[in-house]
Design brief:
609 residues; alpha/beta; Rossmann fold; Arc Repressor Mutant, subunit A; 4 domains; seven-stranded parallel β-sheet; 17 strands; binds adenosine-5'-diphosphate; binds zinc ion
């Protein structure tokens, strides 16, 4: 079998995506590789195709045990002998799986990093002969990454303990230089091919909004997305519970997922979501790593996450099959404080000494600062994201909320001076709300009792709406001409560059949204014609039956993209069926007849189509 045959016959893809082929070739030639690809780019193919062509077994290290089952399920459906070994198995199941590995029954074995240390796993691996070790979410090995997992440091020892060094391939969606360096060293990669594919996901629409009432805004948006499947991420378990209850009350088929639920409840929520019995999953960030549900068509962040890496990874779970999808962040300044609190009180891994922990925390604050810039920027959101991941974008994208909104620049030097001067006169000891109140001449008790109504800056901006004063203040914070202190209750303070603005040596401009004239919404669903939609519906129903019979999630049978392609191509025989994207030999054998019959029947009943 050649690599293209494996790609086509097993996975049903007719061509490699950018980067995939180069990686496959390199691994097959015996070289190590470090692959940085965004979520949804298709990392699995990069190691699964070589795994089928190499002798012995490929060990795939993966951090989240809850998802290995699904990945192995998908491989099994495609006709690949695969197994997983983790703590969700009973000792008897585990022993059986290990026997299978040792007997050379499997081409691919998924294992949690902790497993690699055990003698029984090592023995089985040695007997099977390990050709390749593929490390998923490889950034977990780095102390500077956003999800450091000390157990990842064991991978290197496992590789060293094998009689023959296997090919080692590392995969991650995190691209910063430090993390990359760390992966190279901590995994002991030998002269690896380093590949970074484009981070852009053109089918994703990005949006940020800062609504006064998040619940109302969420309901408004979801109303426009009825019937579509999506995830709402919240910062805390309590918020997950509240939002989920609200959605259920409003008639949405919603489920929740967080670490406070029993394993059983979590498993059920996840299955219900994967099998489309519920359409909206309300979850903390505990949900979703490795989830390859291809028809997730929106991801809303009800709270701002702690860094852009997390945001892009979570948002990236939308639109995995290439269909248009929406990623919306609902921002409130309170989110910054919540995250600061979490960083402040988070526990550093026990392996780190005090200086290392302090440095780690510093980086977390810096990442949070960047995330806050994303939430408040007026530039093209895609340009911002790509720059963050070290890529240059080719101009504004036209497919994000800032591009759609449109902005005009306005000089705000005079207001900026008033704000800075007011911060100074109030002794640099108060937060944004009070400063804005004083500038706007509020009669609030707190203002008068502190005597701020007697300041010369009191009421200077009394004719400006609060939002405008806030906008100028945000611009000063973003440019570093004012800052929020790191204290428990952050207060506004001046910076070394404040003086330039105060003395009129530098102008301050703000970008003001143009009056609402949002171009007609051009983001429809897919390109299928109405007749195709009818067939698509019939195919979906058949897929649901097949999935239920095989006890697997629907997308494991066929992805939405595959069904859409099927509805467009309307294959009439097995050869034509193989032309459908996502159809390989195993799927043809297993489902070909049924789906071909379904299409033929649909065409008989709808001769006009
Ligand atoms: P990642 O692990 O990088 O997030 P996956 O490996 O889960 O991404 O792949 C994402 C989706 O892209 C899957 O639905 C997969 O079937 C699809 N895919 C991967 N490679 C190809 C390809 N060469 N052609 C078409 N679809 C592909
Ligand atoms: Zn844009």
């Amino acid at each position: 079998m050649t690599k293209l045959e494996a790609l086509k016959h097993v996975f049903g893809h007719s061509a490699f995506r950018p980067g995939q082929e180069q990686i496959v070739d390199h691994l097959l030639a015996g070289g190590d590789a470090l692959c940085v690809m965004p979520t949804g780019a298709g990392k699995s193919v990069c190691y699964q195709v070589p795994a089928l062509l190499m002798p012995g077994v490929t060990v795939v290290v993966s951090p989240l045990i809850s998802l290995m089952k699904d990945q192995v399920g998908a491989l099994t459906q495609a006709g690949v002998a695969a197994a997983f070994i983790n703590s969700s198995l009973t000792p008897a199941q585990c022993a059986k799986a290990l026997d299978g590995v040792a007997a050379g029954k499997y081409r691919i074995v998924y294992a949690a990093p902790e497993r690699l240390e055990t003698q029984s796993f090592l023995d089985a691996a040695v007997r099977a002969g390990v050709s390749m070790v593929a490390v998923n979410e490889a950034h977990c090995v780095s102390q500077w990454g956003q999800d450091f997992r000390p157990s990842y440091l064991k991978i290197r020892g496992f590789i060293a303990a094998l009689p023959q060094r296997p090919v080692v391939a590392a995969f991650t969606a995190t691209a910063t230089r430090e993390v990359r360096e760390d992966i190279l060293h901590s995994l002991g990669l030998c002269d690896p091919l380093e590949i970074t594919t484009g981070f852009d996901r053109p089918n994703l629409w990005f949006g940020v909004c800062a609504p006064r009432d998040k619940k109302a805004e969420l309901l408004r948006r979801l109303d426009g997305w009825r019937g579509r499947s999506g995830i709402v991420y919240c910062a805390t378990r309590k918020t997950v519970d509240e939002v989920c209850a609200l959605l259920c009350e409003r008639g949405y088929a919603a489920a929740r997922y967080h670490a406070g639920l029993t394993d059983e409840e979590r498993r059920r929520s996840q299955d219900d979501f994967l099998c489309d019995r519920v359409t909206v999953m309300v979850a903390t960030n505990a949900f979703g790593m490795g989830i390859d549900k291809s028809n997730v068509s929106f991801v809303v962040h009800y709270n701002m996450p702690k860094d852009v890496e997390s945001y892009y990874q979570e948002a990236g779970r939308a639109g995995r099959d290439g269909s248009p999808a929406e990623c919306l962040l609902l921002y409130a300044p309170q989110d910054v404080h919540t995250n600061r609190f979490l960083i402040e009180h988070g526990e550093a891994p026990a392996e780190l000494d005090e200086a290392q922990s302090a440095a780690l925390r510093e980086r977390e604050y810096e990442r949070l600062r960047q995330m806050t810039f994303y939430a408040t920027t007026t530039e093209c959101l895609r340009v911002f994201l790509l720059r963050y991941f070290g890529e240059r974008a080719h101009g504004a994208c036209g497919n994000c909320s800032n591009c759609e909104q449109g902005f005009e620049e306005r000089d705000a030097t005079r207001e900026a001076q008033m704000i800075l001067s007011c911060i100074a006169r109030m002794g640099q000891r108060y937060g944004a709300k009070l400063v804005v109140d004083v500038l706007r001449g509020s009669r609030a008790e707190r203002v008068t009792s502190l005597g701020f109504d007697r300041l010369s800056t009191y009421g200077l901006l009394k004719d400006e709406p609060e939002a405008e004063v806030r906008r100028v203040l945000d611009a000063l914070l973003a440019s570093g001409d004012a800052k929020l202190t790191d204290s428990e209750y952050p207060v506004l303070a001046l910076t070394p560059s404040s003086g330039e603005v105060l003395r009129g040596e530098r102008a301050v401009t703000v970008r003001v949204p143009l009056a609402k004239s949002r171009a007609a919404k051009k983001r429809g669903k897919g390109s299928a014609s109405p007749a195709d939609e009818g067939l698509f519906g019939a195919l979906r129903a058949l897929r649901a039956q097949c999935a239920a019979a095989a006890h697997v999630p629907a997308y494991v049978v066929f992805t939405d993209a595959a069904l859409r392609d099927m509805a467009a191509k309307k294959p009439r025989n097995e050869d034509e069926f193989l032309e459908v994207s996502g159809v390989g030999d195993a799927k043809l054998r297993r489902y070909g007849r049924k789906f071909l019959d379904c299409i033929a029947q649909y065409e008989r009943e709808h001769p006009e189509s």
